[in-house]
Write a structure and sequence with these properties.
It is a single chain. The chain is extended and about 80 Å long. The protein is built from seven helices and no strands. Helix 2 (34-62) packs across helix 3, helix 3 (67-87) packs parallel to helix 5 (105-119) and helix 5 (105-119) packs antiparallel against helix 6. It is an all-alpha fold and 168 residues long. The longest helix has 34 residues, at 125-158. Helix content is 74%, strand content 0%.
Length: 168
């Protein structure tokens, strides 16, 4: 890109050290109130859980289910709501405002997978949607399996689950 026709660039190359750049960026970073962010996260996360509790209560009342039996359809409805809101762009706006409060495990995970699927849909179903959507899911599933294995070994070594087997 040329400047005023004299063959000189219109911009001056900037060479900053890493420390200078960090100071430059920190001076221009907007200030954030930790207490306000915590309150927003608490309110939104609590509201998502409140909706989930309402859905579970609906299943328990309308279909005479126990709390345990109502758990699976409640999770399915919460995932569906999260995916619908993500598809409409609403969940992202809620996340931007609430921060970590929207990362309630079930809805936050569904949002992450749906966002990846939407973002990469132009690359095709298998290499775009499938491959990129499960990049996140793969790490979560691996962590879950490893954690369950470790907890299972601990239970086995210390015999923690044996009393339940005898009495249950």
């Amino acid at each position: 890109m040329k400047g005023s026709g004299h063959g000189k660039p219109a911009y001056k190359p900037v060479s900053m050290s890493s420390k200078e750049y960090q100071a430059f960026a920190k001076n221009r970073e907007p200030s954030r109130s930790i207490w306000t962010n915590c309150l927003k996260a608490f309110l939104v996360g609590g509201f998502i859980c409140f909706i989930g509790q309402g859905v579970q209560q609906f299943f328990m009342t309308a279909f005479d289910m126990s709390a345990k039996d109502a758990g699976n359809p409640t999770v399915a409805i919460m995932i569906l709501l999260s995916v619908i809101l993500t598809s409409m762009g609403v969940y992202d706006k809620i996340s931007q405002w609430a921060g970590a409060g929207s990362a309630v495990p079930v809805t936050g995970f569904a949002n992450s997978m749906c966002s990846a699927a939407i973002e990469h849909r132009s690359e095709g179903l298998v290499l775009g949607v499938g491959a990129n959507m499960f990049k996140l899911a793969g790490s979560v599933i691996v962590f879950g399996v490893v954690a369950a294995f470790v907890v299972g070994i601990i239970y086995w070594v210390f015999g923690i689950g044996a009393w339940h087997d005898i009495t249950g």
